[in-house]
Amino acid sequence: MKIFAIADLHLSMDARIEKPMDIFGSRWQNHAENVANHWNRLVTREDVVILPGDISWGLRQGEAMADLAWIHQLPGRKVITKGNHDLWWTSVSKLNKLFDDITFLQNKCYMAGSVAVCGSRGWVCPGSDGFSAHDKKIYERELIRLGLSLDEAKRQGAEHIVAALHFPPTNDKLQPSGFTALMAEHGVKTCVYGHLHGKDAFKNGLKGRLDGVEYRLVSLDFLEGKPELIYQSEE
């Protein structure tokens, strides 16, 4: 089994949604087709693909269904966490009844053998420019959600933990945060995140190791549409 990750698909398959992405640069030209080509070449039915948020431009679940169906037809098991643009996201219990190969993750973990996939949306971190009292409230709520997910992994006896956030786990000064502290405390091996787009923004994401955790930016344009291999079983 292999585990891949790619964030920020920003799909708009529904005819009611007009959101062309190629206005954001060449890496977004035919981006869904590009992702599908890489995905079909790399991923098998036995593999897992983590999608850390910003899945669909749909505003309601009905408008996102074509995008979710497109993901469903790709090989592998998919684990989706929420992004800031996923306004279509309804209750997790309802979403998890839609497809047998897609898990929508919130407050829980997904077990792939002895590997736990944990995560939350995350949020902007303290020390970011303009960080407000409103941001602090959401940040603290997302810390609770990540903590619940990581605690569930421990209860499930996970031997290896992968964490997925949509937002970067630090501010743009790359200073430690509550998110990085939680992941270090729970022995997370790898954290993947997205949200950052464009060469100027890529440098604002923590990459490499901090307190034993490996941090990897997996936004679609950073990966040029190719799902990133983050774990492979030794069997």
TrEMBL record:
Domain of life: Bacteria
GO molecular function: hydrolase activity
InterPro entries per record: Calcineurin-like_PHP (IPR004843), Metallo-depent_PP-like (IPR029052), Metallophosphoesterase_sf (IPR051158), Pesterase_CT488 (IPR014578)
Ranges for domain Calcineurin-like phosphoesterase: 1-198
Membrane-spanning intervals of the chain: none
Annotated PANTHER family: PHOSPHOESTERASE (PTHR31302:SF22), TRANSMEMBRANE PROTEIN WITH METALLOPHOSPHOESTERASE DOMAIN-RELATED (PTHR31302)
Protein name: Serine/threonine protein phosphatase
Organism: Anaerotruncus colihominis
Lineage, top ranks: Bacteria, Bacillati, Bacillota, Clostridia, Eubacteriales
